[in-house]
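Lab notebook, design round three. We kept the backbone fixed and only want residue identities now. Task for the bench partner: fill in a sequence for the structure below.
Input structure tokens:
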């Protein structure tokens, strides 16, 4: 067995000089004057019968801004060292392309460019905003790599909760996607020193299945089959649903997370009685502030009449997908990666979350006075929103110059 390398020295990347240079570069990549002006003037623009309304809160959140700043700072400070990242820094393909252009190579499939086992103590490894699992981080540290940890503080608060569950021998029921990087990182912290278990539920149907088992037990093999890949090693539903704590991926839909908590609590109360349930059930609201603000702002915007909604962002972005889901429930909604998807007045290519692929819709932009809402997830930069607004007006026959004048 190889001897672990000495831990890397801490390096402060956030010096005034580095951050000034980072800010300039980040702004040149992601800033939009059009979006800033529109935001500053109330978020509504009308020109030639087309009204665009921007949600009050949209786009980059504090956690994403910090992660991008740190990655850019690492590229400025460690100019003589190899730079790697544990997956996508955030869920936006355009931002990830910029990160790759800084010479930062990916260690995680599906866009893997290097192997963790080939790293040396000279290398720098960036941990993305969603964090990483305990085992991978431990290996990187063992190799002595310089770690630049951009994990969002809101994600770390969830870790604190599930770690506490583990040390109290409480099973964490995590409302999230078992394949999402953040949920994988959280789940890895729900088991500490051989204590604790986790179970990941995604839908209310999953939740009801778990609730039925809590109330009456049932077929253990069928339970384990249904949740394959979404529970800790050795998890046994007959033993490990006695004391549970509900936590969630930070970017879930608030109403749904509350419903998951409510249903599990009701099942525990039915089984144990209200008094004992105080001991055997706990929950913490771990939806992050940025996700909440974007959902609230969209809810407000949807209260007024609009003809259609455009949601801009990466298709694997959970918080963006939830915004699209909210829109779909009320009006025609097009979830697009960027402005190139607005192909013509007749045709738009957009992500269908149910089919999990891009689809094409014809006749999406009627030729009459229209009000179009626009929002974007926490990982979407303003320049992509600007391009979407400009393209929309272009399809409506209003060029960029005239629009800037308006
Ligand atoms: S969406 Fe929330 S948890 Fe994720 S980076 Fe932004 S603030 Fe942090």
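Proposed sequence:
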């Amino acid at each position: 067995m190889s001897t672990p390398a000495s831990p890397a020295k801490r390096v402060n990347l956030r010096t005034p000089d580095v951050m000034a240079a980072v800010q300039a570069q980040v702004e040149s990549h992601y800033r939009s004057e059009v979006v800033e002006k529109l935001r500053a003037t109330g978020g509504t623009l009308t020109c030639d019968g087309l009204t665009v309304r921007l949600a009050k809160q949209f786009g980059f959140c504090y956690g994403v801004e910090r992660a991008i700043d740190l990655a850019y700072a690492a590229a400025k400070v460690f100019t003589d060292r190899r730079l790697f990242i544990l997956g996508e820094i955030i869920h936006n393909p355009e931002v990830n392309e910029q990160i790759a252009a800084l010479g930062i190579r990916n260690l995680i499939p599906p866009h893997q460019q290097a192997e963790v086992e080939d790293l040396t103590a000279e290398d720098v490894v960036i941990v993305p905003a969603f964090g990483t699992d305990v085992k991978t981080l431990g290996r990187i540290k063992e190799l002595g790599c310089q770690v630049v940890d951009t994990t969002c503080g809101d994600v770390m608060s969830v870790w604190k909760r599930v770690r506490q569950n583990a040390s109290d021998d409480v099973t964490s029921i995590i409302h999230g996607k078992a394949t999402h990087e953040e949920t994988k990182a959280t789940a890895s912290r729900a088991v500490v020193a051989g204590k604790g278990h986790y179970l990941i539920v995604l839908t209310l149907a999953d939740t009801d299945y778990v609730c039925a088992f809590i109330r009456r037990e049932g077929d253990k093999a069928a339970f384990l089959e249904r949740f394959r890949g979404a529970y800790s090693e050795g998890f046994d539903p007959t033993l490990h649903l006695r004391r549970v704590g509900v936590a969630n991926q930070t970017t879930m839909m608030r109403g749904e997370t509350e419903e998951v908590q409510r249903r599990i609590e009701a099942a525990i109360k039915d089984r144990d009685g209200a008094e004992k349930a105080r001991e055997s059930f706990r929950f913490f609201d771990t939806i992050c502030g940025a996700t909440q603000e974007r959902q609230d702002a969209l809810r407000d915007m949807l209260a007024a009449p609009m003809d259609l909604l455009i949601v801009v962002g990466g298709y694997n972005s959970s918080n963006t997908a939830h915004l699209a889901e909210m829109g779909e429930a009320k009006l025609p909604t097009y979830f697009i990666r960027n402005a190139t998807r607005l192909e013509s007045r007749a045709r738009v290519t957009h992500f269908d979350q149910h089919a999990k692929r891009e689809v094409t819709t014809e006749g999406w932009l009627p030729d009459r006075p229209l009000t179009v809402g626009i929002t974007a997830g926490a990982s979407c930069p303003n320049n992509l929103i600007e391009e979407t607004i400009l393209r929309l007006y272009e399809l409506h026959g209003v060029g960029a110059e005239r629009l800037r004048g308006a």
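Keep this in mind before ordering anything: The pocket of iron/sulfur cluster is lined by residues 61-64, 129, 152, 154-155, 250-251, 288, 290-291, 319, 378 (CB under 6 Å).
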